[in-house]
Backbone:
């Protein structure tokens, strides 16, 4: 679905706040899905025109026959369980492997850069799950940022906060 006017307003406000906060990006990566890609270009126009690339690793999880159906926090949480599948859905283990691959690529190839990644709720939950080391039950309780909300992560050396021991950590 395309982004609506409220979504555009939210992204423009987030971009304005980033610019006012001095954020400058070396690169913007976006899910190839329409709303995220449009958001990337709104961010690009406000934050200094960095190069912008579609990244399939940021794509939302395919939920098969449930695709396009109304979402609720309860229904979304089901997609975080390994034993919950529907016909045509991307298996959770494959999806999480794709998200872990994204984090590894960002860490390996973009570790010294300021990168903005635009993605979707389930992808954000998977990212937070890996960075915070959440269990399935904890990830089901995590509420991702609202539309155009942000979280800052540092990808690099081991977390400086003992006893985290993770290669990814949240700033």
Residues:
């Amino acid at each position: 679905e395309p982004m609506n006017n409220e979504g555009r307003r939210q992204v423009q406000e987030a971009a304005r706040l980033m610019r006012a906060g001095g954020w400058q990006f070396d690169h913007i990566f976006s899910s190839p899905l329409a709303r995220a890609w449009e958001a990337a270009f709104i961010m690009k126009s406000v934050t200094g025109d960095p190069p912008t690339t579609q990244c399939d690793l940021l794509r939302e999880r395919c939920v098969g026959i449930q695709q396009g159906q109304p979402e609720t926090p309860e229904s979304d949480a089901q997609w975080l369980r390994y034993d919950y599948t529907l016909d045509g859905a991307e298996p959770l283990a494959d999806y999480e492997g794709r998200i872990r691959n994204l984090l590894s690529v960002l860490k390996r190839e973009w570790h010294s850069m300021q990168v903005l990644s635009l993605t979707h709720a389930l992808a954000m939950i998977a990212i937070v799950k890996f960075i915070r080391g959440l269990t399935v039950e904890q990830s089901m309780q995590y509420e991702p940022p609202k539309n155009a909300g942000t979280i800052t992560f540092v990808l690099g050396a081991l977390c400086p906060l003992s006893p985290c021991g993770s290669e990814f950590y949240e700033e």
